[in-house]
Design a protein that fits this description.
By secondary structure, this protein is of the alpha/beta class. It contains 9 helices and 15 strands. It is elongated, with a radius of gyration of 27 Å.
């Protein structure tokens, strides 16, 4: 492996009291809980409760000591006597409040990826690259507490930013992070799922095959159609089947009973999602492809045969370049 990744070490810690997500349901907040404060002007603040700390806002100061022990779903008051609703944060809140060093995946795509990769508590999944950690959060949320996310990031600054984001929301105990390139493969084998969010995912499909269990779930995230085409062609060459290309568009509505209508803006194209399943080595891929992909392969073979015949004919031409050979001279 490259020196960058071989020199790195996983940054996981055992799941324990530092992660509040799986310690059981509570009716009141506790120290180290991650909470969402929703103010009267509908601004959202995500904080981790620690004694003695304060949240400073335009509506006054909210003291953590006043929030610790408060009832979920109730209100807390600032130094300016302004109330805020105390809520348990949802996964989209975690993803949209993280510090960004790169473009993050949208919650609509992340939730669907978790569904399509068949992830649940106890699953193992590899991710490359980590980016700011938005998708890593969604993956860890799905597989915890018994599962594990193995995530790879080549850029050092982005790696450390993602680590801080995961620490902040209490999901780092379920993630092992690696800093370095995946050019020479992954450290894991037999994982349930693998997702690539890299510029040239088709270059790493041999490594994907080596890391996935037979029949495992693969996903790729790509912004442009030409990248999708490159990946689709490579999936055939590396024995993947059950291939799908999908895109999610999300339109919100104004929640007003007598004037229900769409919002003025919507979350449109955020990326293409490519899904596939790995096959056991040696299986006949053509038997398990869709009719459209079988016809694509047939067109490819025909083009290869035409090119080969053209090359044969070109090689058979006389040296003087004539189309037909010279006729023999009369005796």
């Amino acid at each position: 492996m490259t020196s960058a990744i071989s020199a790195s070490s996983p940054s996981a810690s055992p799941a324990g009291p530092e992660s509040p997500w799986f310690r059981g349901a509570t009716t009141h907040t506790q120290e180290r809980d991650l909470v969402l404060l929703l103010t009267v002007d509908l601004k959202r603040y995500l904080i981790t409760l620690r004694p003695g700390q304060e949240l400073h806002t335009h509506l006054g100061i909210y003291a953590h000591n006043d929030i610790i022990g408060a009832a979920w779903g109730g209100t807390v008051t600032s130094s300016m006597d302004q109330p805020a609703l105390l809520l348990e944060p949802a996964l989209p809140d975690l993803m949209t409040h993280l510090k960004r060093g790169t473009q993050i995946i949208y919650p609509k795509d992340a939730a669907y990826l978790v569904h399509r990769l068949n992830l649940r508590a106890g699953s193992t999944v590899i991710e490359a690259g980590t980016g700011s950690g938005g998708l890593t959060m969604a993956l860890a949320w799905a597989v915890a507490p018994a599962g594990r996310v193995y995530t790879y990031e080549a850029r050092s600054d982005t790696y450390h930013l993602a680590r801080r984001n995961l620490e902040r929301v209490g999901l780092l105990p379920y993630v092992e992070m690696y800093e370095g390139s995946i050019d020479e493969g992954f450290r894991q084998a037999g994982v349930d799922a693998l997702v690539l969010d890299v510029r040239h995912p088709w270059k790493y499909l041999a490594h994907v095959n080596a890391a996935l269990k037979p029949g495992g779930f693969f996903a790729g995230l790509l912004p442009t159609t030409n990248q999708v085409s490159e990946l689709l062609a490579a999936l055939d060459n590396h024995g993947f089947t059950d291939v799908a290309v999908e895109e999610l568009l999300l339109r919100a509505y104004k929640p007003v009973p007598d004037r229900l209508r769409p919002d003025d803006t919507m979350v449109g194209h955020t990326g293409f999602l490519v899904f596939a399943r790995g096959l056991t080595a040696g299986m006949d891929l053509s038997r398990w492809q869709s009719k459209e992909r079988q016809r694509f392969r047939a067109r490819q073979r025909m083009q290869e045969e035409i090119a080969a015949e053209a090359a044969r004919r070109a090689a058979a031409k006389p040296e003087d370049g004539r189309k037909y050979p010279k006729l023999p001279l009369p005796g």
